Amino acid sequence: MPADADGCAAIFDAWLDATDWMPRRHPPSAVARFHREHLFKTCRIIVAEEEGRGLAGYLALDGEGFVAALYLADRARGRGIGARLLAEAKAARPEGLTLHVFAANEGARRFYAREGFVETGGTEGENEEGLPDLFLEWRAFR
Which domains does the chain show, CATH number per domain? Predict the structure, then answer.
């Protein structure tokens, strides 16, 4: 829902600020604008909320099965919320999902491996951040 765009951007910004290996390329105002004007207009956004605590995380899924974003509030990590968001995306796209993950993001890599994703390629940093990344894929039946 568009009303959640700024909250989702704030979750991403908090992760970015807490991640020492990740360079900040855009100020928070531009991140919020990107969420409002692009991500929320081009992707299906699945949000997780905690009663009395608000937005806990979100997943952005494009029409081709690409997971463009999956971020959780720090307080929501390690509680199965990311797996539930991903389960909803898998149910929406049973033919498969793809995503990119930064090679340095070891926690995310372990999470996606547990969720059945396999590495299909990557780059040495051909992205805006200039960081090595991996391409991952999930298929319901391999």
Answer: 2-138 (3.40.630.30)
Over range 127-141, report the average pLDDT: 94
Q: DSSP per residue over 11-47, as a string? A: HHHHHHHH-TTSPP-S-HHHHHHHIIIIIHHHSEEEE
Q: Is the pTM of this model over 0.70?
A: yes
- Burial zone of 126 (CB within 10 Å; 0-12 exposed, 13-18 middle, 19+ buried): exposed
The token duo for 30 is: 């531009």
Angle at 41 between CA 56 and CA 6, to 5 degrees: 40
Instruction: Average the pLDDT over 50-58 and give the result.
Output: 90
CB 65 within 8 A of CB 96: yes
